Every structure is written in structure tokens, then in C-alpha cells.
TrEMBL record:
PROSITE patterns: FE2OG_OXY. Residues 1-33 are annotated as: Disordered. This is Fe2OG dioxygenase domain-containing protein. SUPFAM superfamilies: Clavaminate synthase-like. Pfam families: 2OG-FeII_Oxy_2. Residues 184-290 form the Fe2OG dioxygenase domain. InterPro entries: AlkB-like (IPR027450), AlkB-like_sf (IPR037151), ALKBH2 (IPR032852), Oxoglu/Fe-dep_dioxygenase_dom (IPR005123). GO terms for molecular function: broad specificity oxidative DNA demethylase activity; cytosine C-5 DNA demethylase activity; ferrous iron binding. It comes from the Eukaryota.
Length: 324
């Protein structure tokens, strides 16, 4: 048999430090100085830079997740929530937070909303990024978006956005989450709250593209922030009749919101002063989008059109990269 070129699968994309871009990057230092193994990368044309895979020492510990049994929170009307405190084993909270903050591309998305004749510019008050593809499509082994049923390429016109595969460093956690919850997820949304001024206002993740009663797994790494939940107003019960809930979400924790939670409750991370909020908090949510509209929505509001930001260790902040 003639020697064949190794097929360009997504996994083979993960092999050797692929570009000068990476080598030239001063931040490209291993998590631990003693690490001898070469770093491997997730690579895709839609990524603004190659995304490092987790070092084996982090994966080895992460594989012990979930670190605790969940608490069931379902005694309030329409609330159906599992709370893992923690889900991620303690020894990797800090290295995993540092790794993801350093290695992922982040965006500060701006968009306009129209209410009647007036257009308002919204500046998303946190850093965001997203990876994944809805149920109607998947990535082929070579990283091309193909129809989920026929396996044929979807073509340039089926999505306005350019969907990004979930990089291996996050997919490890997605697979663990699927195994422990029995749920299926095809999207990872990541929020980075740099300071106590970053926030997300009251909303519910009840978009139709998620189907009825969606399950959403939501992780915290880094600073503790309050997660507020309040019942939506209904004709029968006024909002104030069902007590609001405050969950101080701490590093390593995960909440699984499911059942009637999204259709009946709103949640938020309010701005806060003091505490360790200024050390930064990463939130990762895994979700399952059913139709193409979900993919369009997630990329529009979590990647958008602006420049990519990357963590700068020397400056201790996200810095917008030019020309990417
Ligand atoms: O940061 C969090 O814990 C919540 C984020 C959230 O609600 C969302 O992204 O929809
Ligand atoms: Fe949410």
C-alpha cells in the first residue's frame, strides 16, 4: 500500500505547535515549568488563534468530577435545579481558571436594539465567547460544517455566522457533564466577568431554539459572585409571592437548571463592589440548540463583529488584539 498522508482530522489538528503565531507568543509558556511534554492545540480556520489543549496533569484530576453529589433544589414552584458544590475537584480550580482565561479568545460584543423608532447601542457588560453547532449540523472530521443527516457540506449560505467547534480544553468538561447529568450539549458559552462591574441582567434562557424545558449546565471558576433567581410574574402569583433566591456561586461549582426553571424563573449576576470579584470569574454554560437560528443567535451575541481580546499576564487584563 502506498504511504498516505495522515487525514486532517480535528484530532490531528491538535498535534504539534502548528504555527509561527504560537511560537512567537511570549505567553506561550506551559502551565507548569516542569512540564516536558509538547503542548498540543485545537486548530480551526474560524479560531483567531490556536487553542491549547489541557495539560495531562489537569485532565487527570478533572476526571474525578463530579467532586460532590448535587443538592436538589425543587421545593419552590417551577424550580428544578441541581447544585454541585463543587463539581470540579478543588486541586484544579485555580490552574483551570488560569488556563481558560489565558487560552480562550474573548469578545466585548456591541449590538443595537430597536424599540419603536429608537435604536439603542448595547455594550455587553462582560467578556464572552462561544463554540458549538445546533442539532441540524455537525463538524466533519476535517472541521467542515456538514448536514447532520446527509453528511453533505452545508455550504456558505446556510449560516451567516462561522460556527466554531468546541475546543478540546472545554470539550473535556462537556463530556464529563454529559456523563454525570445524562443530558446532551452541543454549545459552550463562556462569560468572563473581569471585575465586579461586569454583570448579566435578569433574563431566562428560554429561547425557542433550545426546545421546551431545556437543561443548562452552568459552571463557575474564579471569584465568587451572587446568582439571583426570581420567579416570573404570573396572573395567579405575583412575582413577590414566590421568594427570590440568592446562590453565592463559588469556584468549581455547577448548577444544572432544568425542567420548568427557564420558562418560569429569571436569573442574573448583579454588579457588586468589593470581595474578590475583581480577581475575575469565568462562567461556562453548556446548552443544546435544536435549530440553525440558535447558532446564529449565539454567535451574534457572544462573538459579534469586533476584535478579539486575549489575556495579558503582564498587564493583568484582557487586551484587544489588532488585525485578527
Ligand atoms: O455567569 C453566570 O453564572 C450566568 C450566566 C448566564 O446566565 C448566561 O450566560 O445566560
Ligand atoms: Fe442565563
Amino acid at each position: 500500500m502506498a504511504t498516505t498522508k495522515r487525514p486532517r482530522t480535528l484530532d490531528s489538528f491538535f498535534s504539534p505547535p502548528p504555527s509561527k503565531k504560537i511560537k512567537a507568543d511570549p505567553q506561550d509558556t506551559p502551565v507548569s515549568d516542569t512540564l516536558a511534554e509538547p503542548r498540543q492545540y485545537s486548530v480551526h480556520p474560524t479560531y483567531p488563534f490556536n487553542i491549547a489543549q489541557l495539560p495531562a496533569e489537569i485532565i487527570a484530576i478533572l476526571n474525578f468530577a463530579p467532586a460532590a453529589e448535587p443538592t436538589i433544589m425543587n421545593s419552590q414552584p417551577d424550580l428544578d435545579l441541581l447544585y454541585y458544590q463543587p463539581y470540579i475537584p478543588k486541586d484544579v480550580w485555580s490552574p483551570l481558571f488560569d488556563f481558560l482565561r489565558r487560552e480562550l479568545p474573548f469578545y466585548r460584543v456591541k449590538y443595537t436594539i430597536k424599540r419603536g423608532p429608537t435604536e439603542t447601542l448595547i455594550n455587553t457588560p462582560r467578556f464572552t465567547t462561544v463554540f458549538g453547532l445546533d442539532e441540524t449540523a455537525r463538524f466533519s472530521p476535517t472541521g467542515v460544517v456538514v448536514d447532520a443527516t446527509s453528511g453533505k457540506p452545508c455550504g456558505q449560505t446556510s449560516y451567516r455566522c462561522r460556527p466554531r467547534p468546541i475546543p478540546e480544553c472545554i470539550d473535556v468538561l462537556r463530556r464529563l457533564t454529559e456523563a454525570s447529568t445524562g443530558c446532551t450539549f452541543n454549545f459552550a458559552l463562556v462569560n468572563y466577568y473581569a471585575t465586579g462591574s461586569d454583570s448579566i441582567s435578569y433574563h431566562s434562557d428560554d429561547e425557542r431554539f433550545l426546545g421546551t424545558d431545556p437543561a443548562i449546565a452552568s459552571f463557575t471558576l474564579g471569584a465568587k459572585r451572587d446568582f439571583l433567581l426570581k420567579h416570573k410574574p404570573t396572573e395567579a402569583k405575583h412575582e413577590s409571592e414566590v421568594k427570590a433566591i440568592k446562590l453565592p456561586l463559588a469556584s468549581g461549582g455547577m448548577i444544572l437548571m432544568k425542567g420548568r426553571t427557564q420558562s418560569n424563573w429569571l436569573h442574573s449576576i448583579p454588579k457588586r463592589k468589593g470581595g474578590d470579584a475583581d480577581k475575575g470569574r469565568i462562567n461556562i454554560t453548556f446548552r443544546r440548540a435544536m435549530v440553525k437560528g440558535g447558532t446564529e443567535n449565539y454567535y451574534r451575541y457572544n462573538v459579534g463583529e469586533g476584535g478579539v481580546h486575549r489575556w495579558n499576564e503582564a498587564r493583568g487584563e484582557m487586551v484587544e488584539e489588532t488585525g485578527k
